[in-house]
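Example record used in the benchmark description.
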Amino acid sequence: MRQRIDRSMRVPPRPLIGIVIWAAYAIYAVVSVLPSGIDFDELADTPSNVIKSLVIPVGLGAAALLVGVYFLGWWRPVFHEERRSPRWTLLIAAFLGLAVVVALVRTDWGGTEASLILWLAVATLCIAVAEEALCRGILVTALRGGVGEVGVWFWSSVLFGLLHAGNIVLGQDVGPTLAQVATSFLYGSVMYGVRRSTGTPQPSHAGSFRLRDGCSASIWTAPDGSNLLTLPASSVQTAPDG
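Model output (structure tokens):
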């Protein structure tokens, strides 16, 4: 599916533009955390750690991405899906909502201070806005300027997964990082489906926020206890599997 180029676009969408923006953000996402000096497995231990290593750098990154969308003139194609998929695909969004509810029900927030939960929520919201705007917004728009829709889904999801490979530089072990990249590819595919089914990436923002909040609560972890998707799971207790 090739998107319609309208006069509001100051720069015609091209895959290379999206890849350059993705690469710039991927580098920034790693470099911006390093000055904090906080170990990867301690990023979510305290409100101060969350603010310094996540809220501030990721929040600034998200703001920069939104400003870039505005100056490119891509606001409408980034946040509006012109060709929606069949109505039955709304089941994707429904299942996503169910997963959110399950994550919240299974999470044991007892013993966690309210300020930490608040800043984790702010951090995961910043992450959701930044990554959804980049991967389900900018990349989808850019890729549609040069590849077919199957390629749009595949490459936007692949790049979403690879976006998390930088966690190795931040101190995460190789095994959990590779698992995170693979899982994020699948997660990105679901978020792509939500965009196509609802006509907007906004539900993806909300789903990403809540699911990532669940991830920071250790809902989805590797067998060794390592987090598969995003924030370390050291700050919130988790209900036992069952």
